[in-house]
Amino acid sequence: DGGITQSPKYLFRKEGQNVTLSCEQNLNHDAMYWYRQDPGQGLRLIYYSQIVNDFQKGDIAEGYSVSREKKESFPLTVTSAQKNPTAFYLCASRAGQGAGQPQHFGDGTRLSIL
Amino acid sequence: AQSVSQHNHHVILSEAASLELGCNYSYGGTVNLFWYVQYPGQHLQLLLKYFSGDPLVKGIKGFEAEFIKSKFSFNLRKPSVQWSDTAEYFCAVGLYSSASKIIFGSGTRLSIRP
Q1: Buried-state track B63-96, b at ≥16 Cβ within 10 A, e below 16
Q2: Probe site for chain A from B36, B44, B45, B60 (most A CB atoms < 10 A)
Q3: What is the mean pLDDT of residues B35-42?
Q4: Which of the residues in chain A have pLDDT under 50?
């Protein structure tokens, strides 16, 4: 079945440590996204990528980094500069570059600080 | 800056009651509009979308939404809710000026009393 796979499901980070969240899709979608979901704040856009080797900052990119070396992969690194990283992280993808296409979402990664 | 507002944070209804969830956005250009639903323990899934044409769009499970351009609104409605509609509902806006950028509202938690 085609879909989006996020791993791991749960992740723990020590103070001062960088961690990387994986997102893989086999839907052949061009665009990929990372959102952060906090209670009462909905989904906030961290980064998005329209095509391979290109990505743009979203509304809360500080303390995060991404890469898009392959169409199917869009890993998110939460750096030590992100002071409040505890959250639920969602990856999404979308076919084409037209704004009318809906997004498909993964099951999320919950990141906690030790 | 572009934003999406969902003013109802938590709505509690009895079964068979009618539902309307508000969504307003701030963006002067052309948009595509989406409603997503997140059932407990499940990933986000598309309820309906507006791309062009008839501003009244129908989605899955008896939901519909009306795009009122003059009011920058895209409210979600259902004439008679069921207990199984208990979920969190998110409004999202895709911006034509940046074809892949999609921003979300803060979400509305809907609880249905059996």
Answers
A1: bbbbbeeeebbbbbebeebeeebbbbbbbbbbbe
A2: B44
A3: 93
A4: none
Structure tokens at B112: 């249905």
Task: Please provide the size of chain A in residues.
Answer: 114
Which tens digit of pLDDT belongs to each residue from B14-28?
Answer: 999 999 999 999 988
**Dihedral class, residue B99 (left if φ above 0, else alpha if ψ from -120 to 50, else beta):** alpha
What is the DSSP secondary-structure string of A42-91?
EEEEEEEESSTT--EE-TT-TTEEE--SBTTB--EEE-TT-S---EEEEE
Q: Of B32, B45, B46, which has the smallest distance from its Cβ to A99's Cβ? A: B32
More confident residue, B95 or A32: A32
Residue B49 to residue A43, Cβ atoms within 8 A: no
CA distance B14 to B112: 5
The answer to whether B83 contacts chain A (CB < 8 Å) is no
What is the mean predicted confidence (pLDDT) over B74-95? 95
